[in-house]
Specification:
Pfam families: A_deaminase (PF00962)
Structural class: alpha/beta
Keywords: Hydrolase, Metal-binding, Nucleotide metabolism, Zinc
Bound molecules: adenine, zinc ion
Cofactor: Zn(2+)
Distance between the termini: 24 Å
CATH superfamily: Metal-dependent hydrolases
Helix content: 40-55%
InterPro entries: A_deaminase_dom, ADE, Ado/ade_deaminase, Metal_Hydrolase
Protein name: Adenosine deaminase domain-containing protein
CATH topology: TIM Barrel
Length: 328
């Protein structure tokens, strides 16, 4: 249709993408064989992997996502993982991407911070030259490991500051409110990092308030549960705090039902800065254009809304104003 055509040709920024969540089953097996760790992945075949990607909650996904990471060991592994994502992003007309990585997932397995970061940044640099994609890296703290481990990770990252644009907060949400990480985010701000946090994915609207008030984030990742709190929605609209929404992720993890999707459209029309992203596309069945297309089809979005979403992706990005201007 015309809408799908429009989605495929519009340049866009992707702002919520876990690089570990782009590990396609084929690459998972290839790296497992190369690194002699086939025994570390709980599957015998590609079919078995795909059958396992049937989730009922955030945690049921995270368990498999962390298990898959066991195959990522060398700098070259991280390079190939990131490069594969960038080629797919280029095919979806992504011209700027801000990717998350989870250093603690790798350091806990004995893979140094520098190994993961260097593989990722080498691919990003190559993409700038060969695919015309600009990028930033955002390192995320795993909230289930608590604030002390997050603080140690931030300290470990300081020597690599020039390669890291911002800090984020991800993993299991319920029981790990943003306020626990206030001190870590305070230091990160002092060190010049931008800040984002997953909030209101499975957790309540209250966690979104905490991310705004305690962590002083520049963007909220997901944030769909904000819909349950009218005064929060009013605040986010007025402050133009962006939400990086991931529709296929929310559907796969059973985060929301149809009613919430419709409210999202109302908020978009009211001027909330909503953006569309793919989260963990290898696990949720689609890269960024598939996420736009899913929303367009389920909501019957008009061309004007598609334009608005594409524009919001640049407004919400950490690009300099000068570069941003070129796209909006
Ligand atoms: N890590 C990777 N994907 C995530 C998500 N959707 N929510 C929380 N943590 C994550
Ligand atoms: Zn996410």
């Amino acid at each position: 249709s015309d809408i799908l055509q429009l989605i495929s040709v519009l340049p866009k920024a992707e702002l919520h993408l876990h690089i570990e969540g782009t590990l396609e089953p084929e690459l998972m097996f290839e790296l497992a064989a190369r690194n002699n760790v086939l025994d570390k992945i709980p599957y015998e075949s590609l079919e078995e992997v795909r059958a396992a990607y049937n989730f009922h909650s955030l945690q049921s996904f995270l368990d498999l996502y962390y298990a898959g990471c066991a195959v990522l060991i060398t700098e070259q592994d991280f390079y190939e993982l990131t490069w594969a994502y960038l080629e797919r992003a280029a095919a979806d007309k992504v011209v700027h991407t801000e990717i998350f990585f989870d250093p603690q997932t790798h350091s806990a397995r004995g893979v140094p911070f520098a190994t993961a970061l260097q593989g990722i940044t080498r691919a990003l640099k190559n993409a700038e030259a060969k695919l015309g994609i600009s990028s930033h890296v955002i390192m995320c703290f795993l909230r289930h490991l608590g604030p002390e481990s997050a603080m140690a990770t931030l300290q470990e990252a300081l020597p690599f500051k020039e390669h890291i644009k911002g800090v984020g907060l991800d993993s299991s949400e319920l029981g790990f409110p943003p306020s626990l990480f206030q001190e870590v985010f305070q230091l990160a701000a002092k060190e010049g990092f931008k800040a984002v946090a997953h909030a209101g994915e499975e957790g309540p609207a209250e966690y979104v308030w905490e991310a705004v008030q305690h962590l002083k984030v520049d963007r909220i990742d997901h944030g769909v549960k904000s819909i349950e709190d009218a005064s929060l929605c009013a605040h986010l609209s007025k402050a133009q705090t962006p939400l990086t929404v991931c529709p296929l992720s929310n559907v796969k993890l059973k985060v929301y039902d149809g009613e919430l999707v419709e409210k999202l459209q109302v908020l978009l029309k009211q001027g909330m800065c909503i953006t569309i992203n793919s989260d963990d596309p290898a696990y949720f069945g689609g890269y960024v254009n598939a996420n736009y297309a899913f929303l367009a089809e389920s909501l019957g979005l008009d061309a004007e809304s598609i334009y608005q979403l594409h524009k919001n992706s640049f407004v919400a990005s950490f690009l300099s104003d000068e570069v941003r201007e070129k796209y909006i």
